[in-house]
Amino acid sequence: MLVEKPSTAPKLRSLSAVTVNVPMRRALGTSADTVRSAPLLLIDVVTEEGITGRSYVFCYVASAGPAIARMLEAAFETVRGDHVSPHDIAAKLHKRFRLIGVQGIVRMALAGLDVALWDILAKAAGLPLAAMLGAQLSPIRAYNSNGLGLMTPAACADEAMELLEGGFSAVKLRLGRTTLSSDLEAVRAVRKRLPDDVALMVDFNQALSLSEAKERGRALDQEGVYWIEEPIRHDDYDGYADLTRSLTTPVQIGENFSGVTAMAVALSRKASDYVMPDLERIGGVTGWIRAAGLAAGNDIAMSSHLFPEVSAHLLAATATAHWLEYVDWAEPILCEPVRVKDGFVTPSAMPGVGLEWDLQAVERYRI
């Protein structure tokens, strides 16, 4: 009889999760809310061999942190003692949580665990994650997504110029003011101040109806905007297909894809010109790999949403890589934050994903 070779992969031993609330250097005023701090759930997964895998989840609101942590703990109890095999563990956990549904905080918890598992595997191999995925540590073009919220046009123009520090060649402006004219004032003020070779993305954060989106989108077609992001409800793929056909400016969606299936549906309906999956909603590294294959198969440019530390590795291994969204929200609690040079971010050369907590800062911001 055949004897299966014992697995040499590390074995899962323990998990810890800490919620911090990190003040943002620049407040983010969106059509939904003004965000002044980043609630993050910091995740450490330890193996029997003493390897620690790390990741973090952006909780959106501080009250979600404990709920995500509890779901994460429940998930870990299902796989404690398992060998680290992210694809197998993802399948096991999706089956375990099928009845409640792998959505919302369940998906966020599982994605946070998945990233930590890939960090473990890359550390065990002595490789940066990008190299583990077969990619070079190539510089990734980034746009500055800090700040630039719903401020006065003059304040937006001033901040846009400040955001070029580090050599950025693109910035993102939030829209969704009460009138088209007030949105246009902000866009024109920023576009006028920016050098001609700097791209200006705009993001409505789902603020508009379809008819409003068509009206504002057609107006923006004349303003030199690089892309229009999430103007309507995130899952109205038929509406997005209509917009994509109607507007000259490219339409960008994807941060709210809940798993790769949602992305597949959107692509099948030709709902956008570009996609930008979110690491904690697409399913962590395991989900990203599937999403990148889907994007390549559909020949559609794929950017990242948040999590620049890990996303840089993933975009390096993405055939249709487009833009890295750069935010500095986690920087205060990291020993080695992401560094921007000439508008590019290079994946960390450390084994794993490159996350190391500044423990004094973690205690300072701990909830």
Automatic annotation (TrEMBL):
PROSITE patterns, per the entry? MR_MLE_2 (PS00909)
For biological process, the GO terms are: amino acid catabolic process; carbohydrate catabolic process
Q: Note the Gene3D superfamilies from the entry.
A: Enolase-like C-terminal domain, Enolase-like, N-terminal domain
Keywords annotated in UniProt:
Magnesium, Metal-binding
- Which domain of life, per UniProt? Bacteria
Residue span(s) of domain Mandelate racemase/muconate lactonizing enzyme C-terminal: 153-250
Its needed co-factors are: Mg(2+)
Citing just one GO molecular function, the answer is: hydro-lyase activity
Q: Which PANTHER family does this entry report, sorted A to Z? A: ENOLASE SUPERFAMILY, MANDELATE RACEMASE, MITOCHONDRIAL ENOLASE SUPERFAMILY MEMBER 1
This protein's name: Mandelate racemase
